[in-house]
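Take a look at the protein record below and tell me what you see:
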Amino acid sequence: MSVSAVDVVAADGRPARRRRRFVLWGVCGVLVVALAAAFIVPLPYYVDAPGQVTGTEPRISVSGRQSFATPGRVMFTTVSQQQATAALLVRSWLDDTIDTIPDEVAVPSGNRTKERVFEQRMMDQSKETAVRVALDRLGIDYEASGGGAFIAAFLPGFEAEHRLFQGDVIVAVDGTEVHTVDDVANAMKGRAVGSVAVLKVRHRADGSTDDVEIPLGRNRDDESRGYLGVALETANPSFDFPFKVELDSGNVIGPSAGLAWTLGIVDRLTPGDLTDGRRVAVTGTIDSAGNVGPIGGIAQKAEGAKQAGATVFLYPAATPKAEVARVRRIANGDLDLHPVATVDDALEVLGFDGAGQR
């Protein structure tokens, strides 16, 4: 007697075709779960990708003085960072504009909220510095005073976190009085990693003062000098500006927009067009002397600049050679690249003549 395929029975009593169907569905289910996990399950890494690119001038408000609108744009660049999945790791291996960073490097303290607070402090400080540097370059007088440098937050991984306390106030560095944050910044110039700064600190707990020796640590974004590893604010600050300048940074944090803010303020306060109608992407920190400092994520920022339609990209002259080569590959002739060491370098590249006229 002949037997049809549907009548064949396996050893466990089930039709073989039905068993094969169950196996197929099982395999498909495993694949679906694995695919979902590749896009959902977080791994102990973070991925840096190109972030938003934003024009500064529309975010700068000036009151009490004439300001000017321009057809061009000075734009600050950012990095988008998120926790990695397997799918994102694969993408980073295939894309030169995306980097993978180990968890312990991206979040050294293990507390992302704490580090975001620190980065927000750094953005606030960079905006204040940008206003002052812009006014300095335009020859606009103002007065600055304060009662020392207030320790607002610590950068994880630096010795200062173990020897100082949030809320303490630095009132002297190596015997020189400190009235504002700038006094500390000036005292730190040229200090090497591992060198020791002697800080006279007024403690928040009881108002007593004593000297604290702090070895300067290494900042992975700037190997050129030693860092205290603290976010500072001028204690009881008094900046007597002749008019009001407000900067809206939105949800962007960190200090790397400092140079862009400075150039945007100069553009808003002077007639003519600083960028000559171009979209100029900018990255780099700024200090009170107008020096431009290196930043992280420059490859991602270069790619973001291209995507935003920028034709010029200003970046810190202290950027490592390997990263500069990478930026050139990414730019691929679409961006006019200019390394700058100071705000004056940047203004010269843009053709600023001191009054904003072309």
Notes: The chain is about 30% helix and 30% strand. Residues 74 and 263 are 7 Å apart (CA to CA).
